[in-house]
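Module 6 notes. Inverse folding takes a fixed backbone as the condition and produces residue identities as the prediction. Think of it as a translation problem where the source language is geometry and the target language is the twenty amino acids. Below is one complete input and output pair. Work through it position by position during the lab.
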């Protein structure tokens, strides 16, 4: 799971597990109302702290990259991310997946770009380099272009995955570093020459693996609070990087900068020396509705070992085999994951449908407390989805449904502007 046991690791007692979880939640900006500030300035600070925000195309609710920032930044609006792309405070590239990253970390993407350029890694490489050269000439002469600005001359296609050659060439040039995304029009990328996108004063020197390892370790510790050895290089396969990370971690443990802790189930994590001796961050008496691609959630093994929350996004699972729903959103309350909801935003009718709500067993808080916190969280989430009514199709357990109905009826009109219906079929 998280990592192998260490005989020198500090053993965490079960009663102290809540503190460890709160450290992780606080580091992710999920325990305070305004951990990074508000609006676009808060969004900039959030991306800089988190290190990346994963991009996803699924839109049954607002897309993941917006959802992650909404969870941490009051007054965040989706158009702010495009503004950040245009003002060069973020850039688009590959982290463990397609992502928006802080522009200050641009140089750490160069190793991946050079790997692709040298063809040790390949993206959608066209058979002929002539097309690459022609596209670069066009963008240099005409300015930023989109895929649809490049004519598709094929007479047939084999499916939605069969990108036209020009689109493949754009992606190859993007991944090898000749082009960057300078803007998005809707979900359509706009490409320009890299030298016209990156700020002139930006450090664009390619780091060596020692520098990259040092950056990753400190970045992961800052945004997660505690990390596993495996998690630091999550989805990164370069053996030189893995070796450099191991060397740095071992040195930091020997120097006393890091310590290892062992959770009750035996999984081992790393944290800054003395972090566990400080007072525990306060836990929020609010429910956070998270994206399936949230930075806290995306490492599923970590989620299971640290929070005992077994989570799988089921949109890739055949419908008949799904347990919880197509696109379930994890729910966090205080220091625990308490359940998940499957939602769909019906934007034409303005209704946010909670198609299913499942709570975990053996919850510490009462159903009445959770119901009140849940409806408060949904107020903000509803507005974020651009909806003005809330409909529950199904929820369980039955006692929680009863609590939802009771709380919904008791809420003063001024606190509950949205019509709520609870079907629970």
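Target side of the pair, the amino acids:
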């Amino acid at each position: 799971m998280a990592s192998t046991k260490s005989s020198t690791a500090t053993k965490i007692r079960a009663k102290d597990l809540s503190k460890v979880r709160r450290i992780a939640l606080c580091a992710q900006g999920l325990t305070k109302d305004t951990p990074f500030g508000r609006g676009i300035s808060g969004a900039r600070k959030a991306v800089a702290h988190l290190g990346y925000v994963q991009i996803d195309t699924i839109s049954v609710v607002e897309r993941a990259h917006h959802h992650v920032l909404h969870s941490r930044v009051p007054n965040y609006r989706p158009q702010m991310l495009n503004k950040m792309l245009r003002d060069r405070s973020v850039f688009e590239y590959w982290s463990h997946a397609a992502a928006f990253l802080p522009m200050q970390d641009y140089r750490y993407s160069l190793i991946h770009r050079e790997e692709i350029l040298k063809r040790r890694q390949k993206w959608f490489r066209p058979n002929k380099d002539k097309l690459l050269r022609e596209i670069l000439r066009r963008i240099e002469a005409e300015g930023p272009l989109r895929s649809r600005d490049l004519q598709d001359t094929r007479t047939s296609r084999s499916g939605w995955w069969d990108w036209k050659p020009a689109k493949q060439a754009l992606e190859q040039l993007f991944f090898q570093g000749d082009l960057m995304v300078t803007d998005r029009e809707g979900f359509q990328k706009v490409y320009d020459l890299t030298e016209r996108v990156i700020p002139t004063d930006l450090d664009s020197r390619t780091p060596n693996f020692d520098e990259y390892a040092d950056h990753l370790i400190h970045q992961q510790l800052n945004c997660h609070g505690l990390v596993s050895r495996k998690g630091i290089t999550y989805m990164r396969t370069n053996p030189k990087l893995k070796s450099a990370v191991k060397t740095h971690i071992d040195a930091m443990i020997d120097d006393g900068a890091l310590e290892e802790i062992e959770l009750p189930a035996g999984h081992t994590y790393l944290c800054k020396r003395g972090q566990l001796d400080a007072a525990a961050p306060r836990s929020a008496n609010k429910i956070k509705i998270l994206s399936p691609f949230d930075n806290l959630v995306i490492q599923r093994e970590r989620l299971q070992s640290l929070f005992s929350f077994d989570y799988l996004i089921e949109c890739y699972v055949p419908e008949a085999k799904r347990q919880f729903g197509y696109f379930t959103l994890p729910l966090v309350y205080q220091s625990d994951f308490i359940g998940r909801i499957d939602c769909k935003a019906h934007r034409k009718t303005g209704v946010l449908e909670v198609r299913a709500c499942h709570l975990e067993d053996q919850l510490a808080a009462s159903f009445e407390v959770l119901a009140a916190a849940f409806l408060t969280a949904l107020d903000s989430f509803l507005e974020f989805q651009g909806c003005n009514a809330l409909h529950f199709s199904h929820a369980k357990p039955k006692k929680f449904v009863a609590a939802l109905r009771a709380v919904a009826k008791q809420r003063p009109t001024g606190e509950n502007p949205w019509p709520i219906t609870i079907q629970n079929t």
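Reference fact for the lab report: DSSP finds 13 helices and 17 strands in the chain.
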